[in-house]
Amino acid sequence: MRMILFGPPGAGKGTQAARLLERYKVAHLSTGDMLRAAVKAKSELGQAAEGYMKRGELVPDQLVCDLVVERLAQPDCTNGFMLDGFPRTVPQAEALAVTLEKAGITLDLVLVLEVPDTLIVERITGRRSDPETGAIYHLKFNPPPADVAGRVVQRSDDTEEACRTRLAKYHAETTPVLPVFEAAGIVKRIDGVGTPDEVTARVIAAIS
Ligand code: AP5
């Protein structure tokens, strides 16, 4: 399976990806996770990306495309992959198309998790994650267990201000990516409102 997990910030892409990866043994390519790892490692890429991320802006296309193209060439992607958070602009989609065409690979599915903007800010500002396991929680919707609660952290871009910037970028720069995939007939839209279990059931039905 070669698919893209698509949707606004806070739609539940990371939450659903973690569940899907247990079921479908494919490589998970989250550009957000890769960029956060680069920031943590203080690499050249991380230093270039950090400011954009903190403000909720998109990291320049060339930096992200290089990262993804390099990652897609790794052996664990041969049996399939789930792109999460990429492509996010039309130039990124074009770079992906060139890379896949060169490799003779076609995409099977673009799964769009749809959540209205009115729910996004609450999801984002309440998100916490476990730095030891990477597990994603929410203070209200999915509280961390007592033995984890003391160590959860909040992402630096999970402020209300950065969230609104991210949402604006999503509508202005990311949704224009969809028509090309729609023309190819590979887009499925999933209602991302409901419990994580309900959403997972819809996602699995769509993949099947
Ligand atoms: P990235 O990490 O990709 O962030 P994002 O797309 O904004 O998505 P999020 O991680 O915020 O949300 P999610 O959809 O994974 O939701 P989650 O499952 O955590 O990117 C971060 C930044 O990196 C970007 O702003 C940009 O700067 C840069 N970047 C990354 N890729 C880039 C690219 N291609 N080009 C340029 N720049 C790039 O869920 C959110 C919360 O809701 C959690 O607390 C969760 O517990 C809760 N939740 C989940 N599902 C439900 C549910 N069904 N009901 C109730 N609560 C739920």
The SSE string, one letter per element, is: EHEHHHEHEHEEHHHEH
Strand arrangement across the biggest beta sheet: 2-3-1-4-7
- Report the CATH topology name: Rossmann fold
The low-confidence parts are none
- Structurally, the number of domains stands at 1
Tertiary shape: globular
The share of residues in extended strands comes to: 5-15%
Radius of gyration: 16 Å
Distance between the termini: 11 Å
Q: What ligands does this structure carry?
A: BIS(adenosine)-5'-pentaphosphate
Oligomeric state of this protein: single chain
User: What is the name of the CATH superfamily?
Assistant: P-loop containing nucleotide triphosphate hydrolases
Report the count of strand segments. 7
Helix content: 40-55%
Short descriptors:
single chain, 208 residues, alpha/beta, Rossmann fold, five-stranded parallel sheet, two-stranded antiparallel sheet, globular, binds BIS(adenosine)-5'-pentaphosphate
What does this structure look like?
The chain is α/β, with parallel strands linked by helices and 208 residues long. The chain has a single domain, classed as Rossmann fold (3-Layer(aba) Sandwich). The protein has helices spanning 13-23, 31-40, 44-55, 61-72, 90-103, 117-125, 146-149, 160-174, 178-183, 196-207, and strands at 2-6, 27-30, 81-84, 109-114, 127-129, 136-138, 187-191. The strands form 2 sheets. Strands 2-3-1-4-7 form a 5-stranded parallel sheet, sandwiched between helices. It has a two-stranded antiparallel ribbon with strand order 5-6. It is globular and about 50 Å long. Bound molecules: BIS(adenosine)-5'-pentaphosphate. BIS(adenosine)-5'-pentaphosphate binds at residues 7, 9-15, 31-32, 35, 52-53, 56-59, 64, 85-86, 88, 92, 123-124, 126-127, 136-138, 141-142, 157, 166, 194-196, 199.
